Structures
1.
Amino acid sequence: MNHSTHLTRRVFLRTTGATATAAALAAGISAKSYDKVAGANERIRAALIGAGGIAQSHINAFNHLRKKGDFEPVAIADCWASRAAQGATKLGLPESAASSDYRRILDMKDVDYVTIATPEHQHGPMTLDALEAGKAVYCEKPMTRTLPEAQAVVRKQKETGLAVQVGVQGMSDDTYESAAEAIRNGVLGCVVQAQIDYVRRYGPQGPWRRPDLVASHVQKPADLDWNAWLGHTPRVAWDAHRYFEWQTFWDYSGGISTGLFVHRVTRIIKACGLGHPRRVVGMGGIWQWPDGREVPDNFEMICEYPRGMTVYVLGTM
């Protein structure tokens, strides 16, 4: 994001387009939505849903943006009330601005858009709820956990005309725009194959494990709404592993495929101007850390596109 760009609330509401891509990137706000807020002050009013790990980066970004004077954080929600309160303090907001129920934020008439920074299984339902409430959305990647959820979000965005953007910072990398231009101009010839990877090197405990937090929260915190955190997933008893290590469970995450590959494959899609693949093959397994996790610790996939191109993506941890 270019923090130096001056963007008023009026410009934000007037100039965002009304067309979404299949990935729901850079969609728009309708004239009807603008009419509802015309005459209000010029600050864009934002709320944050989620106050955990990745949300800390968004809190910092909110505080940076507000220095321009045209951006105003107004509320924060998290199903763990203590976290919501801590987030409100970091944002310089009163205690009343924190809530353990994100729907309270969606009911606020003075909120223009919400940022969703929660575990993956909440992205789809919360985005749909936000659009239904008339809020523009910036959602952490991946946009949703499942394909049906993604299709539902695209339909709802088209229905409402509200802005939806997915937080994949690599899409702002000029390198891939330059590659796209080179391909369009024929500099690289006919591109029929691309490869990219997301490789990390974890220690003995493996990726996405938080043993210290798990050990210190054998009992559920009294002010944490566990059922709210579970959302639409199956009801299970409190499990600190599921809460703090949710990326290792299928109910809440796709692990490498949804949490990491989205950073890589979107760059290839942008550079090569790709749409939907004709078919996809994925393979992998729990080859290094058989510690009770459900999602693979190594994964790879091959995507075949109708134009006559394949994309190979590798992920080892």
2.
Amino acid sequence: MRVLITGARGFVGPYVAKAIAQVFGQDAEVLRSSISRATHNYEDLYDLDVTDIQSVLRQLEHLRPTHVVHLAGLAAVPVAAANAEVAWHINLLGTLNIAQAILQTVPTCVLLYIGSGQVYGASAKDNCPLTEKSLLAPTNPYEASKAAADLAIGAMASSGLHAIRIRPFNHTGPGQSDQFVVPSLAMQIARIKIGQQQPIVRVGNLAAERDFLDVRDVANAYALALKHSHHIEPGTILNISSGSGTSINSILTRLIQFAGREIEVCSDATRFRNVDIPRFVGDSTLARTLLGWRPIFSLDDTLKDVLLHCERAIREP
């Protein structure tokens, strides 16, 4: 079994590699790929620009993976909004290139397409847990580009591509960029705790509720999807979610409590989104049934780990 991970330098990539090793042991060879290996020392980090079809064809012909976990993409909503053309180029065109190259070079290869629960967009306004049958209703370039790629992979699955579409909801953990809400709050609090910032945390919409998971639980779901891939019908969609909502205010309160400091909270207009769904929660019943998956990490443990990682990153840059 040869598993190629695209976007392996990103936040989730190392966790997926570790989860695959835990699930398969010596039975799986993990091949990491990225747009550039120049700044990394992995012997098996291969150059792969997913937006360059010739690059993709060459590497897949060379590596001949049995499975591909497609993580490469532009993931931060604000960054995608500010660079919509780039988001479409990477998230949609890059995904199509991977899928087409698989069909041309290794047609029996299984593609695990990592999409996003955010593709449901405005459908969350119904205030019900989102299932795989919920309408895709994207509200920004990130959601739209991921939804388009998701639909394209679904169509290609009916034409011979053995693809499984994964839609993970919000996940966080040590190492995530502070472009995302949990590490953004944790990094501010870590700086306060260490004495590098005044005891003021600047925040956006604290009322919003999101379905948070630990990245390690999400990575385990991906590994289990690989394990069961040959028993899952091509084109299948699997939500990966906790099934419960937690407000950003609750996240902030817990982080401040774990830091053990008196901290003032200040609203910052620049941190609010133009469209912010009040509650966004997924239903992962199908994934739990087909994969035997369930979350293990508690939210408190995840937040403590993120805060500790932020403190270490500040002390040891």
